[in-house]
Amino acid sequence: xxxxxxxxxxxxxxxxxxxLLQISKACLILGKSDLAIILLGQLLDLEANHKGTLIExxxxxxxxxxxxxxxxxxxxxxxxxxxxxxxxxxxxxxxxEPLKILLQNWLSKYSKxxxxxxxxYVRNLLKGFNITHLKSNQRSQVHNLIEPLSKRELEVLRLxxxxxxxxxxxxxxxxSIRTVKKHVENIHGKLNVQNRTQAVSTAxxxxxxxxxx
Length: 213
What we know:
It is built from eleven helices and no strands. By secondary structure, the protein is mostly helical. The longest helix is centred in the middle third of the chain and has 28 residues, at about 115-145.
C-alpha cells in the first residue's frame, strides 16, 4: 500500500482542483451558471491553491456571477490584484466576450480611483481582446476564400508586395515568366481583385502578409 505523504496529498488536491475546474467550465458552456457558482465557491474555500489556479478560479467565478455585477466585479478585482504584478494575460483573454464586458465595467467603476498600474493593465488586456478578435476575423476571412492560395502563390504574392516585376520574380524563383503570370492571375482570381496593388492590400487585411515595418 502506498504511503500517504504530504506530497501525495498535494498531488491529490491538485488533481481534484483541476477536475472541478473543468466541470465548472463545462457548466458555464452549458449555461448552468448556478452549478458553476457552487463548484467555484468550493474551490475558493480550499486553501493553498496555486496562484495561477486561484486567478483562473476567480475569473471563472466573475463570469459565472456576471448577472450580479457587484459580486462579479469583486471576484474580478481579486483576480486582477493577484495577476497584475506578474502580468498574467492569456488566462483573461481565453474567457472571451463575457470577461471583456466585465473588464469594461471594472474600468468604468475603478478608473477614477488611485489605481494607475491596474487601470493600465486592464486597458492592455482589453487591447488584447481586440487583437485576438481581429486575428479571429482574419482567419475566418481566409477560410472563406474561394480557394486558398497555394504555397507557390504565397511566395509570388510576397515578392509582389516587395515590388518585384514578373521577370524579377521569375529569376528569383527559377521559373518562367509565363508561369509567374499564371500565378499572378490565380492570385487575382482567388482574392477577387483586379491588380497587384489591390492584391497586396487585400492580402495584408487578411493577414496573409506581414505588415511592412
